[in-house]
Structures are given as C-alpha cells and as structure tokens.
Amino acid sequence: ILPLVQKYKVVHLNRTDSRLANNDQPPEIQRLRCRVNFGGLKFTSQIEELGRKVISILRRKGPFVVLHLRYEMDMLAFSGCTRGCNRDEVEELTRMRYAYPWWKEKVIDSESKRKEGLCPLTPEETALTLRALKIDPSYQIYIAAGEIYGGERRLAALTFSYPNLVRKETLLGSSELRFFQNHSSQMAALDYLVSLESDVFVPTYDGNMAKVVEGHRRYLGYKKTILLDRRLLVDLIDKYNAGMVSWDEFSTKVQQIHSERMGNPTRRRVAIPDRPKEEDYFYANPVECLSTLQQQKTASS
Prior knowledge:
single chain, mainly alpha, Rossmann fold, 50% helix, glycosyltransferase activity
C-alpha cells in the first residue's frame, strides 16, 4: 500500500468494515488510527458549515438529546423486525427483503429476534425508555435518522412524551438542504456532526454509525452516551405493558441496568476464537487513545 500512497497521495480501500483488526496492535498504531479517524478526517466545508448551523440553532434553545432512531424501511425489511407494524406493512417489508437476491436471510422470526435484543427499539418502546431514564420532557429531541417507517402515526407516542421533537428537515429551510436531498450519506454526515455535540446521545440500535459516534464521544471526553440493553429492555417493557410491574418499578429497573452503560470508561470486549462478530469494535471504544487517568479508571473497573 505504501508505494500507492506515495504515488497517488490518497488510496480508496474498497469494502473494508469492522472486521479490521480491533486488538493486538502496537499502541502507536492504535493511537494513529484515532488521530486519523477522529482528527484527520474531515467532512466537506459545506457539510461542516451546515452542521455547525444546526448545532447553533439547537444550542440557542437549550439542552438537546440526539436520538439515533433506526426505524427506517430498509432497516426493518432486512432485519425482519416488524413489532408494531400492521399486516400490510409486514407484507411490504417482506416483499422488499425478498426483492434483493443478495440478502440471504429471508425467513425471519421477528418476535424471537426482538426478545434476543437484536431488533431496534420501536418509537413507542423508545418513548417509554426515555421517560424511564428521566430524560427531561422539555429537552429538544433531535432525531438522527432517515424517514421513519409509518411516519407521524408511529411517532405519535414519542411526540406526546417529548413535544420538542426536531430533525434537520424542520430546523433548516428546503433551500439549505437541496444539495443534500438525494445523498443519504451526506444527510447522515450532518446527523453525525450534531450527534457529537449533543448533551446526550441515544442510539436505538448498535449499527456502524452509532458505534463510531459512541467512540468519538468517548475520545472527546466520555460525553454521555446511553447504550441501551435492548434484550433486558424489551422484557421489562412487555412486563410493564402487561401490568406485571408498576411504572415506578419499571423506571427504577431501567435506570439500574443502564447505570454503567453511559459511555463511561470500560474495557473493550475481546471475542472468543472463530466468533469475531462478538468482539467490540475498536472505534466504539478506543481505550488506547484515551488519557492515562482514564485508562487507570478503566483498569480498576
């Protein structure tokens, strides 16, 4: 690769993903990865400027939470997670999944996946979770996501609990977004910048963007990031909805299981042999790049 870098200055590595080595690398290499990913790489000036504008608008109105609400149509179709969807929607999502030959997993048991914690939280489940975690209802909730499947109908519970629900499309004029409208990656880049600066970041699913934002916020000083335990949450939510636990019991338990899941210092999980997907992503928790004091806290925890 070095001769190519020397000749062309920039090399595009196609199809790289989180299966890049996470552990057992020299400390100087790990720190270099952080300097490149969290410091060297920049978005275009147009994206950076518009991101700063969104952040400024939000800051003028007070604290804000970024909710990475993964409830877009493609996410639901390919994950097979259909909790809360009506029959027509389930059929539509299934057709979409079968329309892509390269997607190998066709028959999916939605409820089993949900109980295993493998589905993104629904907007309704998210509203209950934020309330249980004592997120102030007066806070602005910025939705960092594409179009929510089911639209306003599925957002009703979240809007009722958190009326200051906003997104980039409601904060910016159409003329400001016209260059981004057909470029989903650029729209996601705006959400990424806003996510870094939020008072709290809450991803409802641990996808690639959520993981990198988590790590970047750690790198910036362990900014509060609530890492939801979806497997335990859906069990508690089902018990609450069935009347098996009171609201106070539900809220207390939700807070307890997340007390150490706030983006605080922690060790990076190493996978057992032949199961690389169970290993923590380096960029989600780049402990080698954090200060000596923070590393000491990690070691003692």
